[in-house]
Amino acid sequence: MGVLLSTAVAVAQNQVLPPVEIKIGEGDLDTSIRLLILLTILALAPSILIMTTSFIRVVVVLSVLRQALGLPQVPPNQVIVSLALFLTFFIMKPVFDEINTKALQPYMNEQITDREFFSRVSASLKAFMLSQTRKDTVKVFIESANMSKEEREKIKEPSDIPLSVLIPAFMVSELTTAFEIVFLLYIPFLIVDIVVASILISMGIIMIPPQLISLPFKIMLFVLANGWELVVLSLVRSYM
C-alpha cells in the first residue's frame, strides 16, 4: 500500500498539466469563458425570468385571485405557474423578437462580438423594464444605491441607469401594480360576501359560515362575466 501511494505521489509530481489560456479583451471571449457564462445563465434562468419579465405581476394577480374567490388551492400552484409562464412569453414576445433580430441572429452569424451581444440584450430588456417602472421608485433606488458621485453624474438618461438599480426598482413597481389590480378584483367578491352575510344575519342563521354560502355565487358571477378572459386581457393590456 505504501509503495502504491509513493508511486502515485511521484507520478502526480511529474505530471505536466495542460496550459489553460483565458482571453478577455475587447473582442470575442475565449471558448472556456463562453461555456462558463452559458452554464451560469442556464443556472440563473429562472431568476432572470422572474426579475426582468412580466412574470411577477402575472403570478401575483393569479395567486391572489384564488383567495378572492375563496378557493386557496384551486387552481393548483402548478397550473397558476404554468399559466403565468405562458402569459409571460406572450407578453414578452415583442421584446424576445427584438433580441432575436438585433442581438441573437447577428451574433450567430458572427457579425457582432460577445460584448456587443450582451450590450444589445441588456438594452432591449432595459427598454422594457423602464417602460413599466415608476419614476419615483427608480429615483428612490438611485438615491439609496451605494454609488459614487461620478457614477451618479453619468446617469443623464434613463438608459444609463445600471441594471443593479433598475432590476430591483422594476420588481417593486411590478409588485405595486399587481396589488393595485388585485384590489380592484377583490371589490366585487367582497360585495358578494357582505350581501350574503347580511342576508344570513337578517334570517337569524349564524351557525353557517357566510363564505360557504357565497362561494357558489362568486363562482357563478366569475364564470358568467368571463372572469378568466377579463383578467388575462387586463394583464396583457396593462403592458401596452
Provide a descriptive summary of the structure in words:
With 240 residues, the protein is mostly helical. It has one domain. Helices cover 76% and strands 0% of the residues. The protein has helices spanning 2-14, 31-52, 55-69, 77-91, 93-108, 114-132, 135-144, 149-154, 163-202, 210-224, 227-237. The longest helix is centred in the last third of the chain and has 40 residues, at 163-202.
N- to C-terminal distance? 73 Å
Net shape? elongated
- Strand/helix succession: HHHHHHHHHHH
In terms of quaternary structure, what is this? single chain
Strand content: under 5%
The structural class is: mainly alpha
Name the average pLDDT: 77
Using the CA coordinates, give the radius of gyration: 27 Å
Query: What is the domain tally?
Result: 1
Largest sheet: none
- How many strands in all? 0
Helix content: over 70%
Secondary-structure blueprint of this entry?
Elements: H1 2-14, H2 31-52, H3 55-69, H4 77-91, H5 93-108, H6 114-132, H7 135-144, H8 149-154, H9 163-202, H10 210-224, H11 227-237
Helix pairs in contact: 3-4, 3-9, 5-6, 6-9, 7-9, 9-10
